């Protein structure tokens, strides 16, 4: 294992921070070249005029706040390679995955330039991605050093679970009375994909499938603001706790995934007492 300094963690006197493997992100060569050119502020007049003549859109598209994850596909034990054109979006996805997997240790400070070297890009997209994580509350800015992963305890996790329950439980109970069985059956591939990820012990993939399953249920309510708030709370609930960078083991993931399948069975059967019991128990275990 490398020392913390080589990972971008500075000023730490404790044990070395977990490694962030370079295989987790593969930035296309063209994207890297474009990023370096943007970093230097150099652009070719010929390229600009040619792009204008063709009517091309030369600005990078902002990354989606909810990356598309095909949770119905077979689970892979290795992290999938992101193919999007946005370097910032790729780095943001990789950092979020590293948070869930425990590769970014709570309390450690990570340097954007050093992480950029490991990802094969300049510091700019890493810094931009870290700024987004700071807005989400995952990291905090440390002037002249980098970004520190926020320390979280069990109390914060319990508070997030309580808020999520207040939002989601009434919605699910209302949907249980109005949504036909055929619509619930359409969500089964998502629940089964989460079960496969849990069985494989792939925490990062399970986190994505778990969010996708809850997102799909809440989307049936037709309230976009509710879905957005619930997604944000769910993502925050998946960040690691202090002293426990990998808080959930394979058995915990499998139990959680089994609750998804049981809930779908109850919803399909329109068994309202079972739905109420399962959904409340699910959030109590979060």
UniProtKB/TrEMBL annotation:
MF-aspect GO terms: DNA binding; DNA-binding transcription factor activity
PANTHER family assigned: GNTR FAMILY REGULATORY PROTEIN, TRANSCRIPTIONAL REGULATOR, GNTR FAMILY
UniProt superkingdom: Bacteria
Family matches, as Pfam families: FCD, GntR
Domain HTH gntR-type: 85-152
Region (Disordered): 1-72
Name listed for the protein in its UniProt record: Transcriptional regulator, GntR family
Keywords: DNA-binding, Transcription, Transcription regulation
Record has DNA-binding as a keyword: yes
SMART domains given in the database record: FCD, HTH_GNTR
